Structure formats: C-alpha cells, structure tokens
Amino acid sequence: MSVIKIMPCLDMKEGRVVKGVQFIDLRDAGDPVVNAQFYEEEGADELAILDIAATVEGRKTRQKWVKAVLQVISIPLTVGGGISSLEDMAELFNLGVSKVSINTAAVKQPRLIHEASERFGKERLVVAIDGRRNGQMVSGFEVVVLGGSTGTGVDAVVWTKKCEALGAGELLLTSINRDGTEDGYDLEFTRAISDAVSLPVIASGGAGTLEHLYEGVVSGGASTLLAASIFHFRKISIRKVKEYLRSRGLQVNL
C-alpha cells in the first residue's frame, strides 16, 4: 500500500479562508497565510488552495493569495479555481505551484486535459470532480460544475474514465452531499471512481472523525485525504490523524 498523504484545503473567498456546508452557508475560517504555515508545521504532506468564486465570477485565480501562501510553505501546493487555459496554468507554475486543479474548464473543454498533460506532465495535473447523488445516472452519481451549482447530466464514473484516457494525473473527488457535514466521506462515490481508474484519488467532502479518514482509504480507495473543517476549526490535529492511521496499519510520513 502506498504512503497515505494528508492535505488540508484552503477554500478562498475575498482574501479569507472560508468553509461552508454543501458549498453554501460559508463561515470564516481564518487567514490563509497563518493557516498554511500552521499546517506545514503540523506535518501536512501537501496543501490545496481553491479560489471558490473564481469560475462563478468569470475570473482567474487571485495570484496574490497564491504568492502569499507560497512564501510560508515548502510542501507541494495544488491550486484550483478559475483555471481555464494553458496560459493560466503556466502562470501558476511560474509562481512555484506544484499542481493545478481544473474542474468546470475540463468539463467544458475536455481537450484541455490532454493539452495540459502533454505540455506540463500528467503528474502536475489534477482533475477535480464534484459529484452529487443522482439516480438517473448509471453509477448513481452526476458531475456538477460552477462551484457545485450546476448539474451536467454526465455520469461521474464515465467522466472519470475519460479524464484518465485524456491524461489526468490525479483526481480530486468532492461529494456535494457530504461537503462540510462532517458525516464522513461518501464512500460509495469515492470507491466507484477509485475502482474505475488506476489514477491516485484524493477523497474530499465530509471528514469529521479519525475513523472517517481511515475509511476514506480502506473503504474508499483514496491515497490522499483532503479535509478542511476538522483542521480549520482545530477539532483534530494533522499529527493525531497520522498517528491514528499508523496505529490502524496504514503507512504515513510522521
């Protein structure tokens, strides 16, 4: 089994870290630089920063937020939100970003996945898939875009396989139904996708307990565990998560 990574996520709006439930009812979760520095010191393996309003507002990622975070961390940083072209990606890589995450842009222009993979290398390309339960889909899950506000009518598992074929290097899965609830990852959603592809999967949306994180790996098939609420509001420390996962037989870097 591979080494399991822990990835806190900074959802950004108006210069602050925010956290909602099912992508709405946002509340303040602190300063991005303070949080980023804290998470690195706590032992985070990677960090994500998502400009959650960028695509909806029709703009690019706020680079000043990215620059500020990069100044205080040395761990890999994945950036998402408002990235819709190879030029957008190049600008972020030039700042020192390790990976970019695309979501709505990938659904709208799937060829962008292939072009980005060819130009920058698949290891630097994350395709984020926001999914919600929908009995009309064969897999039971539908891809949603524009910050979780708009259904696509696309089956999440079908889309996942297409992303892999086009050259995605990693998948970031967020369950809209579970986001911010702390009721646990949607393990059916995560497992349906991790079983369908050979790509590394990042589980996101709903982690609330140590057991939830363990289940994300063992039942969901994830290799990276993304969480926000439990870290931002200091309910569980990254150190405690890693010690727990190790005690349950998983490999982590302490």
Describe this structure in words.
The chain has helices spanning 32-42, 63-70, 86-95, 104-108, 111-120, 156-166, 187-196, 210-218, 229-232, 238-247, and strands at residues 5-13, 16-21, 24-28, 47-51, 77-80, 99-102, 125-133, 141-145, 150-155, 170-175, 201-204, 224-227. 35% of the residues lie in helices and 26% in strands. The model has no long low-confidence stretch (mean pLDDT 94). The protein has one domain (5-247): Aldolase class I (TIM Barrel), CATH 3.20.20. The two termini are 16 Å apart. It has an eight-stranded parallel beta barrel with strand order 1-4-5-6-7-10-11-12, surrounded by eight helices.
Topology of this protein?
Elements: E1 5-13, E2 16-21, E3 24-28, H1 32-42, E4 47-51, H2 63-70, E5 77-80, H3 86-95, E6 99-102, H4 104-108, H5 111-120, E7 125-133, E8 141-145, E9 150-155, H6 156-166, E10 170-175, H7 187-196, E11 201-204, H8 210-218, E12 224-227, H9 229-232, H10 238-247
